[in-house]
Design goal:
- The chain has no helices and 20 strands.
- It is mainly β.
Length: 190
């Protein structure tokens, strides 16, 4: 969460997290001028300007804010077009913020390749291990393809057409769920 504070002197403003004894502290760090928020709760930030040979130090200012819910945010990398000969193609899903309970499914002439070498139509992470389903099931207990921070897997291609990859995040009580999102891969012959 970005912060914007300025000093009338033009000197740099510094930020720090302040422990005020809150039961549910939601901020974990400050990176540059952004607060890293991990969960709902309370966060207190202090802004200060230390002064220099021309200006006195400013009185530090504290601000406390409450985070009710966090929107989960993920990013994913995968091609939008691929030839059959390029299969299996990589798909990477990374958690930026929010819930670690995610699911991914595919429709069309494609499947998700599990570490056991079998192809499935879905995979979800329930907080313990990735589980593959559709056409049987497989528990990726070794976390070879995914964990709370996302998925690094492969999609197999069976025929020319369109493969639709669907992704959603479930609410774990701290974040709002992501309505299912989708991306398409145009599968070319060859």
């Amino acid at each position: 969460m970005p912060m914007h504070a300025t000093a009338s002197s033009g000197l740099q403003v510094h930020y720090r997290l302040v422990d005020v004894g809150a039961v549910r502290v939601s901020c974990t760090a400050i990176e540059g001028s952004s607060v890293i928020v991990k969960s709902p709760g309370s966060c207190t930030v202090e802004a200060s300007q230390q002064g220099d040979s021309h200006y006195l130090a400013a009185t530090p200012v504290r601000m406390t804010f409450e985070i009710d819910n966090m929107i989960s945010d993920y990013s994913w990398d995968m091609p939008t077009s691929a030839a059959l000969s390029e299969a299996p193609i990589p798909v990477t899903l990374r958690r930026e913020t929010g819930s670690s309970l995610w699911s991914l499914r595919v429709e069309g002439p494609c499947a998700l390749r599990a570490p056991n070498g079998a192809d499935y139509t879905s995979v979800y992470y329930n907080g313990e291990a990735p589980y593959y389903g559709g056409g049987g099931s497989f528990n990726d207990a070794a976390h070879a393809t995914g964990d709370a921070n996302g998925l690094k897997g492969r999609i197999t291609l069976a025929a020319a057409g369109t493969c639709t990859v669907y992704f959603s995040v479930n609410d774990n009580g701290n974040q709002n769920s992501i309505t299912e999102r989708s991306r398409k891969i145009n599968i070319r012959a060859g």
